[in-house]
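We store chain and fold; thus.
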Amino acid sequence: MEIKNGQNRPPLKKPPWLKVTLPAGGAYRQIRQLIEKGGLHTVCQEALCPNQGECFSRGTATFLILGDRCTRNCRFCAVEHAPSSPADPEEPGRVAEAVEAMGVDYVVVTSVTRDDLADGGADLFAQTVREIRKRKPSALVELLVPDFQGSLEALRTVLESRPDVLNHNLETVPRLYATVRPGARYERSLELLSRVKDLNPEIVTKSGLMLGLGETDEEVVATLRDLRQARCDILTLGQYLQPSKKHLPVERFVEPEAFERWQERALAMGFGGVASGPLVRSSYKARELYENVRARIGSA
C-alpha cells in the first residue's frame, strides 16, 4: 500500500488507546522550569512527544542540542524546518548543569539535523557527553544522532566521547524513504549503525521505526532483519501520529495487540531489548532497555 497525500480524505479517527493524560504535577513543572531557565530545548516538546508528561513527572527528559530548527524537512516530524542559528559552544555546559540539577542518572541527548555544519554537529555531541561526565561521572549517556551525511570522521568524533548508547532511527521501511525522509538514505543509516560496532563493539546500538505510514508487515520484518545484520541491540516500535495537517496522514492505527506480537518477534530475532507499543518513542524506558541488554551481555 502506497502512502497517500491525505488531501482527499478526512483523517482517520484516533482510537481510544492513543489517549494520553495531560502533563501535571510538581516534578513536571520543575523540569519545565529547569529547561527554560537554561535556555535549552527538549525533543519531548519540539516533537510533541505523547509521553512528555510521564517522563517529565519521573524527572527525565531528552535534551535537544544544536538549536530547534532542522535543515531537513521530514514529512513526519513536528520540529520546525528553517534556517538554523550558529552552534552555541556554551550549550554542552548548560545541558550538564541541568542534568546535575535534575539529579538524573540516565541522560538522552539528541539534535536537529544540521547539514549546514561541516561535521553535522558531531563535536558538540562529544562535548556534551564530556561535560555531563564532568558534572555527574556516574551518569549513563545515550545519544540519538542524525546520519552526519555518512561521514565516518564525524561518527568517530562522537564515539571518542564514549557514550553508553548510540541511537540512530531508521524511522520507516526503505520503500517509503523518499516520501517520509527526503534527504535521508536507508542504506546510509544502516551503515552508520554497523560502523558503530566496527569502531567500538562495546557501545550499545539502538534504532526505531514508526508504524502506520503505509508499510507492510513483510517490509517491517525485512527491516528488522537488516537491523540485526547491522548488529543493532535495541529496538523501539511506535505508532506514527500526524503532528499537523501539513504532515503525512496516518494510513492505519496499529492495535496494541499487534505491537505486542512485534515485540515477541523482535526478541526472537535477537534484539537484546525491545519497546513496542502505540505510544513508544525513541527514549521511552531508555534506561530499562539498556540494562536489559547489559544483563544479557553479562550473562552470555
